[in-house]
Give the backbone structure.
Amino acid sequence: MKVCLIAGARPNFMKIAPIYRESTKHNKVVCKIVHTGQHYDYEMSQSFFEDLDLPIPDYFLNAGSGSHAVQTAKVMTAFEEVCEAERPDLVMVVGDVNSTVACSIVAKKLKTRVAHVEAGLRSFDMSMPEEINRMLTDAISDLLFVTEESGMKNLLKEGKPQESIHFVGHVMIDNLLYQAGRLNDGTVDVRKFGVYALKQEKKRFAFMTLHRPSNVDCRETFQGIVAALNEIAEKIPVIFPVHPRTKKMVDQFKIEFSKWITLLPPLNFKESLYLWKDAEVVLTDSGGLQEETTALGVPCVTIRENTERPVTVEIGTNVLAGTKKEDIIRAYDESIEKAKTASIPPLWDGKASVRIWETLIKEQKSEWMR
């Protein structure tokens, strides 16, 4: 069985890493890793792949930046050549970036089966490019691997056949638990960032990430979020690794932060995990952190108007705050209490990749996998 694993940005590699590692346990499986190059990434070094126990990708498509149309077209054109050279039995895509939908379309046009990992998630906000990517990818995928029960319900409502939907858990949690077990291997040293004392002396602190265009590209919205952050920092110091896009807008808008907020350069996954796992609360607009904080029982405030990961709000540690100052401050207080009664969603046990390959191996017996 030859499979092309698609990744377009750093979070995608975290999702394919446990899938790839599990694939090596099956003698008749060959996985080719395709890096579309959709996002320039400050941490996509060789050490990044080593930390994930991933080989250097077999293909780098060098899609680069550009409008959604330009970027998608570049990925499609380059990936078509990969498919013609490799003739994969299956193309596996993850998440909701442009590369996800682009490679899915190419595969289907070439009559190659498509599996979508993290299928069925919906924000019901069509202003989000990710929502469009999710819906289009699910519409043409043959195998739909679902992270939470809401995903199954959404797909069934949209008319997908029950037999194509597989509730397997979440590969991001596989990666999270794998990396958490390796934090003491000596590769993480945050002393250079000036927050070592907070960790060593077990002092209270909050952890913050912010990068979505809807939050940082609008001056009024960004200033309101930072006003809330500055007020929270009067109660508890805040550690804020600043995404390159966010840094650009901080400089452009001349945003001012409280002296109790420590601005850091971008962190790699393990450095970030080393800090936020012990935070009193995480404030974020990241999709992945909503899930990861729930998995480790850390209070989370999501600075967005909606979420495609409702289970983190329904039973997890996540509080959906919106983007207004007063709502973010309210959500901060609420999140501390909510975490006391939160629970971990079903099948978020670090074995989603095992279930994915069990399904694929079973499918191998059918005609399309021969």
